[in-house]
Amino acid sequence: MLRARSHLRKKVHVSGNEYYYIHIPAKLAHDSQFPFKEGDELAISIDVNSSKMIIQKLNKKSLKSRRSRG
Fold first, then answer.
1. Which residues does 54 contact at the CB level (< 8 Å), separation at least 6?
2. Mind spelling out the 3-state secondary structure of the chain?
3. Residues 32-49, mean pLDDT to the nearest whole number
4. pLDDT of residue 49
5. How far apart, in whole angstroms, are the C-alpha atoms of residue 50 and residue 37?
6. What is the mean pLDDT of residues 18-27?
7. What are residue 18's DSSP bridge partners?
8. What is the mean pLDDT of residues 26-43?
9. Of 5, 18, 55, 68, which is most buried, counting CB atoms within 10 Å of its CB?
10. What distances in angstroms separate CA 70 from CA 41, 54, 63, 66, one per listed residue?
């Protein structure tokens, strides 16, 4: 399992919109087992019972089925 520490950051745009960022350390992102690359579309879900965030890469098949439903 790949592991690293990070922080959640909040930024407020001049428009007043709030954005939250999670920084992924380079030592994690450059590992050969890191499953994501720049431009990947991701699904993010939160398990509130265990305080865990789950990030999954959406494949093209998932995107097509989501678009046809909504």
1. 44, 45, 46, 47
2. CCCCCCCEEEEECCCCCEEEEECCCHHHHCCCCCCCCCCCCEEEEEECCCCEEEEEECCHHHHHHHHHHC
3. 95
4. 97
5. 27
6. 95
7. 12
8. 94
9. 55
10. 17, 22, 11, 6
**Using an 8 Å Cβ cutoff, are 2 and 33 in contact?**
yes
Amino acid identity, position 63: L
Per the CB < 8 A criterion, the answer to whether 59 and 48 are in contact is no
Which tops the pLDDT comparison, 29 or 67? 29
**Residue 29 CB burial class (10 angstroms; 0-12, 13-18, ≥19):** middle
- Length reported for the chain: 70
